[in-house]
Known about the structure:
CATH architecture: Roll
Distance between the termini: 41 Å
Helix content: 10-25%
Number of domains: 1
Amino acid sequence: MTATPGLGAPRLATPDLLRSTFRRHAAGVAVITAHGDRGPVGFTATSLTSVSAEPPLISFGIGTGASSWPAIADTDHIGVHILGEHQGELAATFARSGADRFGAPTAWRTGPHGVPVLDDVLAWLVCRIVGRVPAGDHRIVLAEVVLGDLSGSGRPLLYHQGRFNRLRD
């Protein structure tokens, strides 16, 4: 490989190259929840994507080694929560391995289809899982939106350069 004038030298694909590249990609922050055999589970996701308007479909990625994966693999319905800029600590809690994600101070309730619904988010959806597509050490989960609530207010929380951030004016 040769360097292109004005650009750095290209690097061969590695997990580190992928991680480093996507640290530069600002993404919205969501928390995905489900009810598992041992109670509620959830994780922070920056891979949430709108897939289709008709029918209304979303997708997200989850590692098969993640503690939430067994519940996501077995459940029919999940909750999708769009976090506001005031919820950096909540995002960090759901991203931290071994954390008591549903203990205090997390405020939540059991919602439709038994899905854990987080309080004070910008918006939440309950979705029915319609597919789990193998993708390396992850699964891409496709889910159809069943219902939702977008009555929250505020600005979104973003993830960039390995940190939770706010929009700047």
